[in-house]
């Protein structure tokens, strides 16, 4: 029988009546002839509560016990979902990560799935069980300890099962009805996309991050799992995240993404010599600073300015790392400037690969609104600019308008 993976996020299993509504959707797919793997999250708010309990018990907690505690939220919903399905007359059984087994690395709190044993569940399907309910977000390490996959990890569980069981599609039920051209809270003409390519979805992480764990999109792209994001509160199709070959409508730009809390840091007058970039960005990487854009200025008298962007919250860490590198004599600069009032705005689209003049159109639209651009970077399918944060909304609206994203195809 064709297989389908249906994943329900926390708000979709928030209480017993929501679990019942989700189970009704599962039954519909079973009646339509699918064998279904249901992947569940913990009830809304549960994982936060569990994490809080761990932290309140132990500040420097043992990560193995953190996983033992936080994995329990999904265990509860998996059992309840199986019970509800049985009540509805559907032959269902639940599986915890270790029972499947979902084999992962030993990186507790951020484990990666290495292998999914399909035999046990496949055998039950062969015996006539129609639904396997799997606790998301968890697995088991080589040391036989329970692991978790990082916040939002049930999405990755779902995609991994879809790949392992060769499912027709992986439906991610959530509290939004799809992926939009930009954040509808900023631009009320934002439009829900019918389809989006994996690569675009990865670049639109700032819009989609709360909807899909980034790792799940990477996995879906690697194994070509068709992923649908849809609402469990309404009955309508969502957004299909798929291979670009499946996308007929060819807009050059698909969406406008943004990061509100960015900072721009500049090392003023650093010695321009081979190895200087490595000497600067090595310590930043070691300090866990997520550097995004990098610009090196023209050199004068063997010295240059080096500018980079990172999240505002990481500025103190970046500053400390650079000051240490300076004190230890690895780098030498005349000043360190931090502008913490910037935001990043990006246009994203696979069509940018084959169209010229897209970035120019972006710059024109911003100029027409009097928005000054501080830093620009481009990749094959994305152009990003840093601007003053106070112009973020204006810039997003102007770009949405310039690329006519409110209009379909
Ligand atoms: N319950 C876990 C979390 O909140 C995993 C998930 O829901 O995807 O991060
Ligand atoms: Mg989620």
From TrEMBL:
Where do the annotations place substrate binding? 47, 74
The UniProt entry's GO biological process terms, in alphabetical order, are: homoserine biosynthetic process; lysine biosynthetic process via diaminopimelate; threonine biosynthetic process
Q: In which pathway does it act?
A: Amino-acid biosynthesis; L-lysine biosynthesis via DAP pathway; (S)-tetrahydrodipicolinate from L-aspartate: step 1/4; Amino-acid biosynthesis; L-threonine biosynthesis; L-threonine from L-aspartate: step 1/5; Amino-acid biosynthesis; L-methionine biosynthesis via de novo pathway; L-homoserine from L-aspartate: step 1/3
Which amino acid positions bind ATP, per UniProt? 7-10, 174-175, 180, 185, 210-211
Q: What is its EC number?
A: 2.7.2.4
Protein keywords: Amino-acid biosynthesis, ATP-binding, Kinase, Lysine biosynthesis, Nucleotide-binding, Transferase
Cellular-component GO terms for this entry: cytosol
Give all residue intervals belonging to the ACT domain: 265-350
Q: Report the superkingdom from the record.
A: Bacteria
**What Pfam families does the record tag this protein with?**
AA_kinase, ACT, ACT_9
**Keyword Transferase recorded:** yes
What family is this?
A: Belongs to the aspartokinase family.
Protein name listed in UniProt: Aspartokinase
Which species is listed as the source? Halovulum marinum
Q: What is the lineage of its organism?
A: Bacteria, Pseudomonadati, Pseudomonadota, Alphaproteobacteria, Rhodobacterales
């Amino acid at each position: 029988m064709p297989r389908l993976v249906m994943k329900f996020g926390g708000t979709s299993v928030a209480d017993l009546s929501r679990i019942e509504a989700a189970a009704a959707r599962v039954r519909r797919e079973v009646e339509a002839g699918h064998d279904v793997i249901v992947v569940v999250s913990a009830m809304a708010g549960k994982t936060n509560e569990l994490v809080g309990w761990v932290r309140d018990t132990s500040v420097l907690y043992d990560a193995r016990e953190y996983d033992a505690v936080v994995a329990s939220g999904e265990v509860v919903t998996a059992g309840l979902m199986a019970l509800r399905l049985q009540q509805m007359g559907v032959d269902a059984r639940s599986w915890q990560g270790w029972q499947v087994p979902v084999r992962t690395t030993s990186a507790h709190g951020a484990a990666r799935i290495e292998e999914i044993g399909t035999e046990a569940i496949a055998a039950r399907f062969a015996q006539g069980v129609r639904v396997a309910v799997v606790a998301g977000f968890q697995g088991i390490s080589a040391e036989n300890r329970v692991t978790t996959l990082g916040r939002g990890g049930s999405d990755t569980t779902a995609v991994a099962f879809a790949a392992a069981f060769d499912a027709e599609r992986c439906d991610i039920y959530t509290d939004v009805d799809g992926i939009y051209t930009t954040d509808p809270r900023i631009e009320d003409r934002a439009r829900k996309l019918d389809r989006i390519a994996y690569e675009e979805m990865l670049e639109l992480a700032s819009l989609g991050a709360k909807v899909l764990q980034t790792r799940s999109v990477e996995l879906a792209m690697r194994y070509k799992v068709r992923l649908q994001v849809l609402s469990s509160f309404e009955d309508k199709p969502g957004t299909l995240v798929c291979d670009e070959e499946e996308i007929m409508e060819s807009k050059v730009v698909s969406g406008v993404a943004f990061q509100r809390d960015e900072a721009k840091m500049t090392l003023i007058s650093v010695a321009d010599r081979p190895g200087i970039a490595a000497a600067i960005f090595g310590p930043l990487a070691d300090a866990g600073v997520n550097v995004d854009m990098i610009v090196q200025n023209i050199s004068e008298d063997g010295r240059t300015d080096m500018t980079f962007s990172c999240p505002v919250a990481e500025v103190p860490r970046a500053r400390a790392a650079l000051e240490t590198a300076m004190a230890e004599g690895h780098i030498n600069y005349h000043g360190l400037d931090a502008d913490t009032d910037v935001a990043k705005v990006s246009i994203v689209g696979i069509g940018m690969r084959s169209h010229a003049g897209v970035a120019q159109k972006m710059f024109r639209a911003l100029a027409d609104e009097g928005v000054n651009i501080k830093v620009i970077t481009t990749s094959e399918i994305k152009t990003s600019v840093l601007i003053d944060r106070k112009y973020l909304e204006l810039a997003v609206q102007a770009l949405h308008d310039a690329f006519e994203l409110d209009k379909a195809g």
